[in-house]
Structure formats: C-alpha cells, structure tokens
C-alpha cells in the first residue's frame, strides 16, 4: 500500500471533446510511425448525412470531379434538378467539365438517363442516381426509404434532337439587323452624298449619334427620301435630333432608322408649272413710220407690218 507508482497519472485527463473517449491524447500518432500517414478525427453523424461507398470514393477510374459530383448528386433529395445548367450555376466548374464528369458516371453505372414522354406529350429526361451500380431497388425492399439504393431525378427540360448542333456558350448571338428605311424615288449621287454628310455631322449635335460607315450607308437612302420631299438638310437634322431620350442610346442607328420611317413626311402636293412670263420690251421707234411702240429694236409697228402684208398680197395677184 505504501508503494508509489510515479508513472501513473495523478488524476484523470480532462475529456477534450464529446466524441473522444477519456484518457485519449489529443494527437494520436498512427501505427505506421511518428508523424507519418493519415489521422482521422471522426464524429458520429446523427442527422443530415449521406452514406457513400468506398467503391465510389476510391474509384480507380473516375476523376476527382466525377467522384465529387456523384457525392453531391447522391446527397440531393428526390426530384432535385441535376441538369448541366443547374450544376453549372451551383459550382465553379464550367459546363464542359461538368458534362464530361456526368458522362464518366454514366459509363461506370452511377447515373442512368432516359427519355420519357409525359402525358402531355412533352419529352423529358429522367436521371437515376445509383449508389451501388449493378444493384436494383427490387433487391432491397427491406431498406428504409431514406437509404434506397437509387434516387430518381426528373429534369423538366426538353430533349434536344440528335441531329441538332450544340450551341457554343462562348459564341455571341448574331447582331440584329437594322430596320428598313424609306427609299428615294431617284438615287441621285448628289442627293445621297448630301444625306451621308448630314448623317456624319449628327455627332456634333449629340455625341451619342456617332455612326459607323456601315450604319451611315444603310441610313443614307432614308435621309435622301426626306430631302427629295422638299425638305432642307436643316429641317431633316432637327427632325432626327429633336427630343432625344435622356438615357444612353444602345443602338443609335436603329433609333434613327425608326425615326426616318415613323416620321416620314408626305409628298408635296402637285403644282402645275407656271407659264413663262411675258416679254417686256422698251419703247422704240418704228423703222417704217418712226412712231414709238413697244417691241424689239429694229422692228416695225403693227400698222406698218399690216400695210406691208397687204402690198405683198396685191403684188402676188
């Protein structure tokens, strides 16, 4: 009873954590040797957990992205969306890498995707996640519903035809063409040049109306149609630049094309050409009788012309 044991602890070690047994040091070294190998610090889950088999977690052929994606899919509830668009919005990886990982899981049997026609006639894609490839749910009816071997996820998206080309996410959509503009009755080079100069000068009125050469060539016939309707370039410029919106113009050429079409004035009314003015002569003297009359210089008055005509007729008889 009087013998002392200096190696025995004087008191019990304080428990460091709820999940560690008493008298366990905080940093237990692995059996492989001091400072080497993996050390697990496990805590038993009691809620919100998913059982993942080592055949998936340590799969020799699947990529790390495919293993992580399969783990995420198996943790989702039934009916969750697992299409590429949803997964791309959820994770940092792009659509190409996620699509490749899904194909890996399909090849190894962890995913099954089939096309199903719903009662409304629309075709959808049904994705089935299998936590044990090769095992069917019919073999495991004794398991609880929360531990089923497969979960079905219905993706409410239309199926793309096999022959349809895939869209490149980096390809920008084509630019929408400009609206049509009125065309002049006569495409005079001088009139088109005047219209082009007017459009090129609009940026001096408002910097937002800076147009490219292609847009100017498209709008020039519309301005020419205005000019041939007896409008001055100043009037056309005022019609195009008046009452502009305060917000930035996203497509100034489309805005001007709309104004050229929507505010096109009518043709001027037809007016008969005025008759030429009567000639006004100064008073001059007749070469025959020296009387004054209005007429061209060096001519005769009416009386002398009539007398000369009577004498000519008498001589011819």
TrEMBL record:
Residues 125-134 have a biased composition (Polar residues). Residues 1-41, 122-188 are annotated as: Disordered. It comes from the Bacteria. Residues 137-160 have a biased composition (Basic and acidic residues). This is Helix-turn-helix domain-containing protein.
């Amino acid at each position: 009873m009087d013998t002392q044991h200096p190696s025995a602890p004087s008191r019990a070690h304080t428990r460091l954590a709820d999940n560690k047994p008493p008298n366990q040091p905080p940093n237990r070294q692995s059996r492989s040797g001091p400072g080497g190998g993996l050390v697990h610090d496990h805590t038993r889950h009691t809620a919100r957990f998913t059982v993942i088999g080592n055949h998936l977690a340590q799969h020799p052929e699947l990529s790390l992205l495919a293993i992580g994606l399969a783990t995420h899919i198996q943790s989702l509830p039934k009916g969750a969306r697992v299409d590429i668009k949803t997964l791309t919005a959820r994770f940092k990886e792009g659509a190409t890498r996620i699509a490749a990982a899904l194909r890996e899981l399909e090849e190894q049997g962890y995913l099954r995707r089939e096309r199903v026609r719903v009662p409304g006639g629309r075709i959808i894609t049904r994705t089935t996640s299998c936590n044990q490839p090769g095992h069917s749910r019919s073999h495991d009816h004794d398991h609880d519903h929360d531990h089923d071997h497969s979960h079905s996820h219905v993706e409410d998206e239309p199926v793309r035809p096999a022959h349809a080309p895939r869209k490149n996410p980096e390809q920008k959509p084509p630019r929408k063409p400009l609206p049509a503009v009125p065309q002049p009755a006569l495409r005079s080079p001088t009139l088109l040049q005047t219209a082009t100069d007017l459009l090129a000068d609009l940026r001096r009125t408002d910097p937002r109306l800076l147009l490219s050469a292609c847009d100017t060539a498209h709008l020039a016939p519309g301005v020419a149609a205005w000019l041939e309707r007896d409008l001055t370039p100043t009037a056309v410029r005022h019609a195009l630049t008046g009452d502009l919106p305060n917000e930035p113009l996203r497509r100034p050429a489309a805005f001007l094309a709309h104004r050229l079409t929507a505010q096109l004035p009518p043709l001027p009314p037809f007016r008969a050409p005025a008759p030429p003015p009567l000639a006004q002569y100064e008073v001059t003297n007749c070469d025959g009788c020296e009387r004054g009359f209005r007429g061209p210089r060096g001519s005769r008055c009416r009386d002398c012309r009539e007398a000369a005509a009577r004498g000519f007729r008498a001589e011819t008889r």
